Amino acid sequence: MISVPNFAPLLAGFWFRDAASTGAADVDWLYFFILWLSVFFFFLITALTVAFVARYYARPGHAAEHTPHHNNALEAAWSIFPGFLVVAIFYWGFTGYLDLRTPPENAYEIRVVAKKWNWSFMYPNGVVDPNLHVPADQPVKLVMSSDDVLHSLYIPAFRVKMDVVPGRYSTLWFEATKPNDESYDQAIDATTTGSDENGYDLFCTEYCGQGHSAMLAKVIVHKSGTFETWLEDAAKIDPASSPVELGKDIWKYRGCAQCHSVDGAKGTGPTWKDTYGTEQATDKGEVTVDENYIRESILNPMAKIRDGYKGVMPSYQGQLKDAEIASVIWYIKSLKEGEEVAASWDEIGGVPGQEETPAEEGADGDEPADAEEPAEPADAAPADEQ
């Protein structure tokens, strides 16, 4: 029996994603109206052209017949009728545009920060996630800005797209209608942010440098009641069980994975595997990859650029706390073969986000520590009591 290849998955990639928002249907209707109108007139004009050529082509022995210079009725018909079509299309498109640009007053607001080459979605309760989580059947307004260059946020299933411009805010809104949270797995792929199979695709559609194609995320639509649960749980989750784990999470979620591999593979930036403690050539000479060099490279990437690589890394100045930078350093240390890392929160100054107690105050901040009594060692108290 002859096996016929299944081209359905391939063809599906060339067509629209299934509509999953309230505004998508109007966009699709207008698109298909213009498409089939164009197809109709293409075949009509082609058929008439072929018919006229066959009917009136020059033949030996046949004198050319006199033809009128113009016909008022025909000229009016092919001017007025297309004019009505153009006006109708404009009205349909303009009213749809106004609807897409005017968010409802009760829209749930989420802040979006674009940065080469990742997305950060910030919720009112302080949760920050690399994927976009939204409630179903509720308007959502995205307030977007860029930390570096021009980006553009595009969600094909919702038929929404808007440029994200540095130095200003842009907005878009949508109302998702099809939840997909039941199959969502929060674990992100080890190399590319937002590469889980579940969830609606979110792309950057404005070329923004070498990592543009990897600037991906997923849109997770939570059914009624579960979005609030996710939001509460996300706010309670501890950043990591150890500094090394936190460093790994920062590598995954803050854009490091797009350029720096952890398995030795060559990328846009140097691999982190077996790098710590080695001597490396830079545009400023030989350097030792130690704590100081890593910290400087995070805050001022252009200071010493490794040979063989271009200076394309953005600065993380003001975006990472000292403890988070230290966690990245511990993670890089852990990637060196034979290196045993047993970092604790005390060694890097406490859990990021926890209020640190000034050295001259007691643990509760009430009275200064007695100068005649030595303070207890930093590792004597649990991290959650500091």
TrEMBL record:
The protein's Enzyme Commission number: 7.1.1.9
Record InterPro entries: CcO_II (IPR045187), CcO_II-like_C (IPR002429), Cupredoxin (IPR008972), Cyt_c-like_dom (IPR009056), Cyt_c-like_dom_sf (IPR036909), Cyt_C_IC (IPR008168), Cyt_c_oxidase_su2_TM_dom (IPR011759), Cyt_c_oxidase_su2_TM_sf (IPR036257)
Keyword GTP-binding appears in the UniProt entry: no
Domain Cytochrome c: 242-336
Annotated segments matching region Disordered: 343-386
Acidic residues composition bias: residue spans: 357-386
Residues covered by the Cytochrome oxidase subunit II transmembrane region profile domain: 8-104
Pfam family, one: COX2
Cofactor binding note: Binds a copper A center.
SUPFAM superfamilies hit by this protein: Cupredoxins, Cytochrome c, Cytochrome c oxidase subunit II-like, transmembrane region
Chain ranges of the Cytochrome oxidase subunit II copper A binding domain: 105-233
Cofactor names: Cu cation
Subcellular location(s) of the protein: Cell membrane; Membrane
Gene Ontology cellular-component annotations: plasma membrane
One Gene Ontology term from the biological process aspect of the record: ATP synthesis coupled electron transport
Keyword terms of this UniProt record: Copper, Electron transport, Heme, Iron, Membrane, Metal-binding, Oxidoreductase, Respiratory chain, Translocase, Transmembrane, Transmembrane helix, Transport
Bilayer topology term: Multi-pass membrane protein
Role summary: Subunits I and II form the functional core of the enzyme complex. Electrons originating in cytochrome c are transferred via heme a and Cu(A) to the binuclear center formed by heme a3 and Cu(B).
Family in the record: Belongs to the cytochrome c oxidase subunit 2 family.
Name of the featured protein: Cytochrome c oxidase subunit 2
Gene this chain is encoded by: ctaC_2
